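Hey L., structure's done. Input below.
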Amino acid sequence: MTASNSQLGSKNEGESIARLQAMIDESNSIVFFGGAGVSTESGIPDFRSVDGLYNQKYKNPPEEMLSFHFFLQHPEEFYDFYRDKMLYLDAQPNRAHQKLAELEKAGKLTGVVTQNIDGLHQKAGSMNVLELHGSVYRNRCNRCRKAYDIQSIVQSQGVPRCSCGGVIKPEVVLYEETLDLNVMEAAKELIRKADMLIVGGTSLAVYPAAFLVTEYLGKKLVVINRAIQSFQGANLVISNSIGEVLDQITVS
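Output:
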């Protein structure tokens, strides 16, 4: 009598979870590198899946409306789209965010490197978070560089403007903009020093951020993503949602 595919899948995943648990237990400087898939369980849509932002229909492609030149040339259209599709201020941390914060509090995880701009890692309690693409919670005048909080964007009508008359820009990295070099260098240093790197909820298709994985030279590289079956150089690949996987991990 042979086991069904579902039984085999369950057994294989159980073995993978047990292996992940053992790797975490023997590690003391874990770094987590995550993307949009980490926040989908909080109700924030990702970009590249079938139902993702890039597969929805708008007057202009999302990549165009989230570009720096579009922000400069069409600020009102930019903000209509930005407020509608990029701000999820009522979203709450999910199982992945909470477990990562728990691992950091236990002294197992040294930091989170995220491509997300939603601030959910901090909301869950994570302290050392490097935001590669910035945050919707930080905003600055494009002219005088005065800082503004998120309410300045939410409560404004049309294009939010500074007291100096300049246009306020979210401190998020738009297309055509470069990543903050200080944040990138800090992320590289964090990953280089890690004894375990967990990559979750990212397709590793966005560069230069995806190059960060190559900074890890250890032997405990774990990739968790429901859309990835294998990854070159990974010591363990788990094809499931990051929240469901991490929820099964015990922190001691």
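The mean pLDDT is 90. The first strand starts at residue 30 and ends at 34.

-- N.
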